[in-house]
Design goal:
By secondary structure, this protein is of the alpha+beta class. The protein has four domains: 130 residues, Endopeptidase. Chain P, domain 1 (Glutathione S-transferase Yfyf (Class Pi), Chain A, domain 2), CATH 1.20.1050.40; 46 residues, no CATH class; 220 residues, Neurolysin, domain 3; 132 residues, Collagenase (Catalytic Domain). It is built from 26 helices and eight strands. A five-stranded mixed beta sheet has the order 4-5-6-8-7, with helices on both faces. A hairpin with a 5-residue loop joins strand 5 and strand 6. The radius of gyration is 25 Å and the shape is globular. It starts with 23 loop residues before the first helix and ends with a helix.
């Protein structure tokens, strides 16, 4: 233990974890010591003879558990981004123990009694106190002994199952890659793409964590498209049983806590508030999306000259898009080089909006050689924190794109944020990394989350940055996507990687027009996933799914989202958001947040666009306050009005 780097705060700038010093054998001893320290700290709070106050109870809880937090943060980072066999085994062992430890805190009756005695007249403290009390209630603090015992069992098993689900998916996604030794099978991919996936005389096309694989839009060989689609939708079948078991356990837990189902339990502390509100929002969109899908399907079949199948849709959608708008997405790739997109696009927009600047720190390293580190400075030159970017896909990394913190911003703990963005771009065998426009947009989206963390200015870590309701957290990131095509920003980063010539204006105009195409498919694909998540979590306590293989189709048919050509963006077996991350009964949050996003894009457009005045207003009223204020009050404060549905309907062509 004497040389365990977890035992003391990192001495690196901003307390960046010292990944070079951390070895797998450090995790378990440090975790055990962290649990012991945290329990001792909580015990000291409980037995403090002084009357319960905000400082000696709530603030003291905010200060507790630092060692445990350091260990779990690094473990979860590696489990998501560089999951070696050793890390996966450590996570498998620690996950249920961590769940039991959280229960030991949240089900501590003496601690709960002390929290209930705390009062405060400070509005920000009162909001945090309210959050703590709701956390305790939703964790089961008011349950009887027998019910608490069962709750502990449920939480432990759910933690084990969630870890197993993720491990299965990482393995299956790698094993289910499309492998061929015949390059003609992959006709349509360019030479750079083929070189990037060549492995010892074979071509290995890995799966991304979505139903529709990007290569389907390019592959001319219909049999290859069908094979790739089948590999995608049939991966990780062993996760079906895990998902059904998790849904049943979550329903039982909700019943113990007094809720009719897990969806009601989850939405109780979200901005939506009720299951009826969520279902009404989703119902408003399903009908219009289906109508657009039927029209789009007829157009694609007419162009193809035959009935199309799900694996044909991306291919012919791209052909119709090219024909209708004279636009080929591949023509844009030479203008979207990764380094320029990040530094001259993403960072540049943030500088113009918020005055912040970035300096790369090549002396600091992340957890993998692909990770780059920048120090971030405010407009007055004062340090804000660190930003890490991990752009490339690899076999040890889960699919998708995400942001998380390595260090949370907190005035109480005198900590500045250390924020990570993960993407999953295929790393070229040589030469520059050229992006699709979707990948560009994803980079801007994830950096919107990063800004939420970097510009946080709160006292308590419990409400820093992205610690907001799940159905609000996507709002700032979706707003940040708008700057990807803002003329001033686009002109700054979209330059040909060989000639330096700016992207032609007429090409951008065709891109803008083409992006409105295929919105029926995109909307229904998302809604089907959101409704699938919702259906799994509307199970009543005691209700089980005997045939999980057919549950998915039955559930989607019941809500009008089953379509033979448009599957859910994530099927059950690879729905990581829901069965391994914290989005259970919460995938609806993307469209819930998009209502606010569409309104905010309209506000920026009507109020000067890309300006420090607008950026500072968004920073002050939304980004900096984190979860320290009611999120909908923050939105109304920024917009100066109640948000409306119309801008979203217009954006998606559903009006």
């Amino acid at each position: 233990m004497t040389d365990n780097p977890f035992l003391t705060p990192s001495e690196l700038p901003y307390r960046l974890p010292d990944f070079a010093a951390i070895r797998e054998e450090h995790f378990l001893p440090a975790f055990e010591e962290g649990v012991a320290q945290h329990l001792a700290e909580v015990d000291a709070i409980v037995h403090d003879p002084a009357p319960a106050t905000f400082d000696n109870t709530i603030a003291a809880l905010e200060r507790s558990g630092a060692l445990l937090d350091r260990v779990e943060t690094v473990l979860h980072t590696l489990a998501g981004s560089d999951a070696t066999d050793g890390i996966q085994e450590i996570e498998r062992e620690i996950a249920p123990r961590s769940a039991r430890h959280r229960d030991a805190i949240s089900l501590n009756r003496d601690l709960w009694a002390r929290v209930r005695r705390v009062t405060t007249s400070d509005p920000r403290e009162a909001r945090l106190l309210e959050r703590y009390r709701l956390d305790f209630v939703k964790a089961g603090a008011d349950l009887g002994d027998d019910e608490q015992a069962r709750l502990r069992e449920l939480n432990t098993e759910l933690a084990e199952l969630g870890t197993e689900f993720a491990r299965n998916l990482v393995r299956a996604t790698s094993e289910a890659a499309l492998v061929t030794s015949d390059a003609s099978d992959l006709d349509g991919l360019d030479e750079a793409q083929l070189r990037a996936i060549e492995r010892d005389g074979e071509y290995v096309l890995p799966l991304l964590n979505t139903t529709v694989q990007p290569a389907l839009a390019q592959l001319t060989n219909r049999a290859t498209r069908e094979r790739l689609h089948t590999l995608s939708v049939e991966r990780a079948p062993e996760n079906l049983g895990i998902a059904a078991r998790m849904a049943a356990l979550r329903a039982e837990r909700a019943g113990l806590l007094g809720y009719p189902d897990h969806a009601a339990y989850k939405v109780a502390d979200q901005t939506a508030g009720t299951v009826d509100a969520v279902e009404e929002r989703l119902r408003q969109l399903v009908g219009p999306a289906r109508r657009n899908v039927e029209r789009e399907a007829r157009e694609l079949a007419e162009y193809a000259g035959h009935d199309i199948e799900p694996w044909d849709w991306p291919f012919y959608a791209e052909r119709v898009r090219r024909a209708r708008y004279d636009f080929d997405d591949g023509v844009l790739r030479p203008y979207f080089e990764l380094g320029r997109v990040v530094e001259d696009g993403v960072f540049h927009a943030a500088t113009l909006l918020y005055g912040i600047t970035f300096t790369e720190r090549t002396d600091l390293r992340g957890y993998h050689d692909d990770v780059r580190v920048w120090e971030v400075f405010d407009g007055d030159g004062s340090p804000l924190g660190l930003f890490l970017l991990d752009p490339y896909a690899r076999p040890t990394k889960r699919g998708g794109a995400w942001m998380h913190n390595l260090v949370d911003q907190s005035f109480l703990l005198d900590e500045k944020p250390v924020v990570v963005n993960n993407l999953n771009i295929t790393k070229p065998a040589s030469g520059p990394t050229l992006l699709t426009f979707d990948e560009v947009e994803t980079a801007f989206h994830e950096f919107g989350h990063a800004l939420h963390g970097l510009l946080s200015a709160v006292r308590f870590p419990r409400v820093q940055g992205t610690n907001v309701p799940r159905d609000f957290v996507e709002f700032p990131s979706q707003v940040n996507e708008m700057w990807a095509v803002w003329p001033e920003v686009l002109a700054h980063y979209a330059r040909h990687h060989e000639t330096g010539e700016p992207v032609p204006e007429e090409l951008v105009e065709r891109l803008t027009a083409a992006r409105r195409f295929n919105q029926g498919f995109a909307t229904l694909e998302y809604l089907a996933a959101a409704l699938l998540d919702w259906s799994w979590h509307r199970l009543a306590p005691g209700e089980t799914v005997a045939d999980p293989a057919s549950f998915e189709a039955r559930a989607l048919e019941a809500v009008g989202a089953l379509h033979p050509l448009v599957g859910p963006r994530y099927r059950t077996t690879y729905f990581m958001h829901v069965f391994s991350n914290d989005y259970s009964a919460g995938y609806y949050s993307y469209v819930w947040s998009e209502v606010l996003d569409a309104e905010s894009v309209e506000w920026f457009t009507e109020n000067g666009g890309l300006s420090r005045e607008g950026g500072d207003r968004f920073r002050e009223r939304v980004l900096s306050v984190g979860g320290g204020v009611d999120p909908m009050e923050a939105v109304r404060d920024f917009l100066g009005r109640e948000p409306r549905m119309e801008p979203l309907l217009a954006r998606r062509g559903l009006d």
